[in-house]
Amino acid sequence: MSESKKFLYVNRKAPYGTVYALESLEVVLIGAAFEQDVQLLFVDDGVFQIVKGQDTKGIEMKNFSPTYSALGDYEVTKMYVSKESLEERGLTVDDLMPLTYEDEDDDWAEKDSIILVNKDEIAALMEEQDVVLSF
Predict the structure, then answer these.
(1) Residue 1 counted as domain residue
(2) Is 44 left (phi over 0), alpha (psi -120 to 50) or beta?
(3) Is the pTM of this model over 0.90?
(4) What is the pLDDT of residue 1?
(5) Domain containing 119 — which CATH number?
(6) What is the mean pLDDT of residues 68-97?
(7) Is residue 72 part of a domain?
(8) For residues 100 and 78, what is the distance between their CA atoms, to the nearest angstrom?
(9) Using an 8 Å Cβ cutoff, are 77 and 34 in contact?
(10) Which residues of 45-68 are buried (b: 16+ CB within 10 A; e: fewer)?
(11) Has residue 43 been placed in a domain?
């Protein structure tokens, strides 16, 4: 049996105003459903996609942010977030949604899916991927 390819989905855009964030989320869900090794990276304005407390009533768009909380059920357990992008936008990890998964190898312990990374770690992360898709 061949080893599965690693897919990194890079989210660079704000969650609303374009289709990029929603399209990325849909592709991630499809890939995960087909048991791809799926990981996400949030950089630039993409960090706003996982900020907690999103309210879209004023822009008359569906708030799809709760879907990120379901990714752990699809075995999407690695969501990398750029430290620099958070800092540049005045955000901290406490401003992000609590994204977790249950680790079946550790007696179903709940673990954090968010992994803070700096620009050097992002470069290394991208280098080890088989496929990198940017949204």
Answers:
(1) no
(2) left
(3) yes
(4) 46
(5) 3.40.1260.10
(6) 97
(7) yes
(8) 9
(9) no
(10) bbbbbbbeeeeeeeeeeeebbeeb
(11) yes
Strands 109-112 and 100-103: antiparallel
Contact indicator for 125, 117 with CB cutoff of 8 Å: yes
Q: Which two tokens stand for residue 44?
A: 């630039």
**What are the DSSP calls for 74-121, one per residue?**
GT---EEEEHHHHHHTT--GGGB---EEEEGGGTTEEEE-EEEE-HHH
Task: Determine the pLDDT at residue 28.
Answer: 96
| CB of 76 closer than 8 Å to CB of 94 | no
Using pLDDT thresholds of 50, 70 and 90, give the confidence band for residue 3.
Answer: low
Structural domain that includes position 70:
6-134
pLDDT digits (tens, 9 = 90+) for 86-126: 999 999 999 999 999 999 999 999 999 999 999 999 999 99
Measure Cα distances from 76 to 20, 53, 83 in Å: 19, 22, 20
d(Cα 72, Cα 77) in Å, to the nearest integer? 5
Q: Could you tell me the pLDDT band of residue 2, with boundaries at 50, 70 and 90? A: low
Q: Which of 80, 79, 76 has the alpha carbon at shortest distance from 102?
A: 76
Number of domains composing the chain: 1
